[in-house]
Each structure stands twice: as C-alpha cells, then as structure tokens.
Prior knowledge:
The protein is of the alpha+beta class and 149 residues long. It has helices at residues 21-34, 93-104; strands at residues 3-4, 10-11, 14-15, 17-18, 58-59, 64-65, 85-86, 108-118, 123-132, 138-146. 21% of the residues are buried.
Amino acid sequence: MTxxxxxxxxxxGYLRRSEHTRDAVDDFIRLLISTPKYSCTPDPEFGFxxxxxxxxxxxxxxxxxxxxxxxxxxxxxxxxxxxSGSSSSPGTFAYDLKEAIxxxxxxxxxxxxxxxxLREERNIYINIKGLLVEDDSPYQLTTKFRIWN
Length: 149
C-alpha cells in the first residue's frame, strides 16, 4: 500500500507517491501537528491546537499554558492543560494529539503519545507509538516542536 508523499510533488505527470506506508504516515502526522486547529475551512477540527500556542506564555512551574488578559476564547481549550505527559492522562496535550491521530490517521491503531517540554531548549518532544493496520508492525515517530516564547 502506498500513500501520497508530502509536500505534494509531481512525478511523470502524477502526484508522487511514497513507496512505504510508514513514510506516508510520518508525513501525515507531521502535517496534522503543524496545521493550526480551526484553520482548515473544510474541516475546522483538523489540525492540532499545539500550533496555536507558539506565542502563549507557559507557566514553567506548573507546566501549563498561562491564560493572559487578552486570551482568545476560540482557543480557550488550551489553557490549564499539561504540556508534558502521556495520552493516558486526559488533561494533557498528548491526549488531544492521540485523539486527533485516532480520528484522522486510519492506518494506525493502538496509538500512544508522550510529550516532554524542555524549558532550556524551548522544545516540546513528541513520541508517537502504535501499530500499522496493514501488517500489525510496530510504528514509532519522534519529532520536536519549537516554542517561541
């Protein structure tokens, strides 16, 4: 089974396809993480709210997003959630990412997500594990996300 490779590219007059499902899943999950939630007109739920907090103030002591005076009510769901954590804890961004992957990436199942925020580096490390539907082989993607504040 193949999938389209991202970013979309043409090859011999057709959209280029990825030879391996794993590569296509990697690309799709990176697209899901990098798309700000509520920015996709056909499906406002597509994306991940993590991209909406690049400029938010993080509470270093509690590991949550701080709600300032000018907080946007559209993305109020991000306030009070833990940045570091696993998908087994509902009050974390890892839980939200797992829900998004379950909803949009049907080539994976038994998905588990862990996220770790390293204050000194201003990076959030994301580790995603699961099983590929086509052959039940283990899947893992590790990526990082830079916070700008």
